Amino acid sequence: MRVLLFLSEVIIPLILFYIVGFGILMKCDVYEDFVKGAKDGLKTVVQILPTLIGLMVAVGVLRASGFLDMLGGQLGRLTGASCTETIFYTVSVYFIAAKVKNTRYTIPGALLATLAGIMASVWLAGMMAV
User: Fold this and answer.
1) Percentage of the chain surpassing pLDDT 70?
2) Which of 10, 29, 111, 113 has its CB surrounded by the most CB atoms within 10 Å?
3) C-beta of residue 116 within 8 angstroms of C-beta of residue 124
């Protein structure tokens, strides 16, 4: 268990050092690539911002009208055991921004990954309790 706790503390710095080290070994301008990636990321934020604002306004209107409470109550009976709206929110925001029309296996794959994450967290929590 101590190994797992140690890894959880050092994994992000190790990944960052690995990426920078690999970039230096490949003779890449790591800083310039980072700045270019940050610019591209900012462009993406600007592109999806209207969609995010529209979704937030729509959710605010639906919440104020009481519709979401009613719908949540009805759907809660069906999905109460293991559902996460984050999957649907993320898919809608990014697929709308990227103008993706066919989600194919995205939702089932995301739900499967969520289930795997829940199972792993329950197992790890059980291991920590021992």
Assistant:
1) 95
2) 111
3) no
